[in-house]
Design brief:
Strand order of the largest sheet: 8-9-10-7-11
Oligomer: single chain
Number of domains: 5
Strand content: 5-15%
Number of helices: 31
Structural class: alpha/beta
Distance between the termini: 55 Å
Helix content: 40-55%
Length: 721
Amino acid sequence: MEFRVLGPVGLWLAGNEVDLGPARQRCVLAALLLNDGKPLFTEAAIARVWGEDAPARSKELLYIYMSRLRKALRAANGVQLRRSGGGYLLDVPQNAVDASLFTRLTAEATTGTSGDGGGLDPATRVRLFRSALALWRGTPLDGLSGAWTEGTREHLRRRRLKALENCFDLELQLGNHSALVNELSDLVDLHPTVEPLVGQLMLALYRSGRQASALAAFRDTRKLLVDDYGLEPGPALRQLEHAILVNDPSLDLQTVTADTILSVTAGPDTAPAVPIPTVPSFAVAVPGALVERTPRELPADVTGFAGRATEIAALNSQLTDSVKQPSMPAGVTLITGTAGVGKTALAVHWAHQVSDRFPDGQLYVNLRGYSTDVPISPVQALGCLLRSLGVPTEQIPVDVAEAAALYRSLMAGRRALILLDNARSVAQVRPLLPGRPGCLVLVTSRDRLGGLIARDGAQQLALKVLDAGDACQLLSQVIGVDRGHAERRAVGELAEVCAYLPLALRIAAANINGRPLHRIADHVVRLRRDDHLMALAVEGDEETAVGAAFDASYESIPPAAQRMFRLLGLVPGPDFTAPAAAALAVLDPEEAGRVLERLADAHLISEHAAGRFAFHDLLRRYARARAVAEDGEADRAAAVRRLFDWYLHKVDAAAIRLYPQRFRLPIPETDRTLPIVDFPDPAGALHWLDAERRNLIEAAQHAVTQRGSAAPVGDSFRYAA
């Protein structure tokens, strides 16, 4: 049994290929196989398969693909596709996936240590590299497309190129220079600016007695770099050229015998009499006098942290294997959620818990994505990071690409944690990602940043508000355990009034602490009587306010999404769909669906079920307040009327399908701006009535309160009851 991704995606059993269906279905399988044995969450799967152009039915389609894959994999013994932790997990036998086997073999060959801990001689390491490289059967993920596919394909290609470089180093040590010339020449033709490969070709040619050809290879590379990029070759390549020009004896191959190779692996006390020469290093040199630093920049841990046990467990499980496996890429964990839900608090708290896993430092940058200040640009953020790593200010490049390259060079080989707080966009984050294994990047954002998931393999953790118990625990820890215990019931009511939002809870607790002679119950009464959002603020600190936090999220979205957000605040029911939002805002249902997705991306609403969206309680109040402030009374009334008319005609259409023989009261003519409503069959009508029952009840009650009569709604609604 063999799963293949290092070429066309496929499964082979007993020499026969298994039919795995269309390209998107095979993309789902590839996403599962390349998820490092961890559950693939639904949002991540959708982002990898469809990217930012995911259709409205993406969750349904994903479920179909998973079901079909499960059937196709039945013939494979030891393979199981199952649900796990809110995602999908594909259990496969060890070494059954070519990419995983490639990783294991190259890791052993690179470190010179076998799986049982034994040392490996150079010839054995070469055989391991060659076995790993033989697993490639063409372009990885061949036949698939999309942002995640392209990013993963490029990552796999880089890993293959690095394996080739390491393999050639060993073969040059063993004297295989003549046999390597043609292979290296072909690779340099494909990658003419990869200086390690050029250096290996020059050395192989020189040792094969072709000094002029070695120097010609250097001149060709230099001309290309100067003409196309305005750059000279690196110092290592220039030193190699000089050594070839003067016939430096250090480039000559020493006599290497079997006894010599064995003595190398025997241990430090039995060093060989004849040293095995090494290929010159072509590492990037950092200009200037760099003062090595180990930054410890995490903000202070959160006082009175409470709850989040499930989320911390998820973060622990997502802790990248790059800390333990040198062959793994740098990991990215994305913590998302609405304003004030505690993203930064969780990230900082957890980062302190695992900081000892990152001995080369912890870096922190507040990107100010949702702040009263201007967001930090990528080059400004890189400047902060490079200064923290010891680069003098005058040596920090002003070009973002050059600064990012220097940053990646400095981070190579480190085991560090980088916390990028309050990110606004993917473009702001991507230049700050290390390029080599060993690092973990924590990103917090109010936006989903789907591009990081699709292209950079980020693992997403979406935060919700606290549950009632954890919210009360947080309040008691900030207020004081004794005071909280004395007014236990009032603490529970306060948590409910704050809608269990951590920022609101902390602000309420801070205000209570500022009034030690007042009861908690009095504060609850005040919050219920006054405007919640005005009361949930700390005097003298404009940014520490729930309303200010919501303002930043609201102002970050386009005007069309802002208008939809305001109008949704007028909806009396518990949730809404794209067709309902379309009627409310006079939009095409598909366009309304896209706007709802944008609001969900910004965590101003949430998708609690497939195609059904809802508000957090405080955000609903905020949206309604925005509507009152920005939309005229006539516009607000017209929007609600359109929604109710749409509900009324949908119910009437359902009643016609389900009970055509019954008498019904006449209903008003449909607004001409509303779409025509109908159901293809009774089952569809019944399903819609079941899904919308609570919304219809709220609509009828609202109609009675606001209009004084709900006879048409009530008459039609009796069919849904």
